[in-house]
Amino acid sequence: MTRGQAARLRSLAEEAYQPKQYARDLTFEETERRISALKAEIALADSF
After folding, report:
1. Alpha carbon 5 to chain centroid distance?
2. Strands (E), 1-48
3. Per-residue confidence in pLDDT tens, the chain, 48 aa
4. How confident is the model at residue 48, as a pLDDT?
5. Domain boundaries, the chain
């Protein structure tokens, strides 16, 4: 995971109240998957 990905994932995990989604040992691909999932979840929550 890149430094930028780490910052983005940590921020999104905190915003979605899911701190366990952040882990230091994730691959680039896994980090991208989690970022996408959290962004979708946050967007859904914001739509209500």
Report:
1. 9
2. none
3. 999 999 999 999 999 999 999 999 999 999 999 999 999 999 999 998
4. 87
5. 3-46
Query: Residue 9 burial (CB < 10 Å; 0-12/13-18/19+)?
Result: buried
Q: Residue 5's CB: how many other CB atoms inside 10 A?
A: 16
Cα(23)–Cα(27) distance, rounded to whole angstroms? Answer: 10
CA 43 to chain CA centroid, nearest Å:
13
What angle in degrees, to the nearest 10, is found between the helix axes of 3-15 and 28-46?
Answer: 30
Q: Residue 38 carries which side chain, given as an amino acid letter?
A: L
Look at residue 28 in the predicted model and tell me its pLDDT: 97
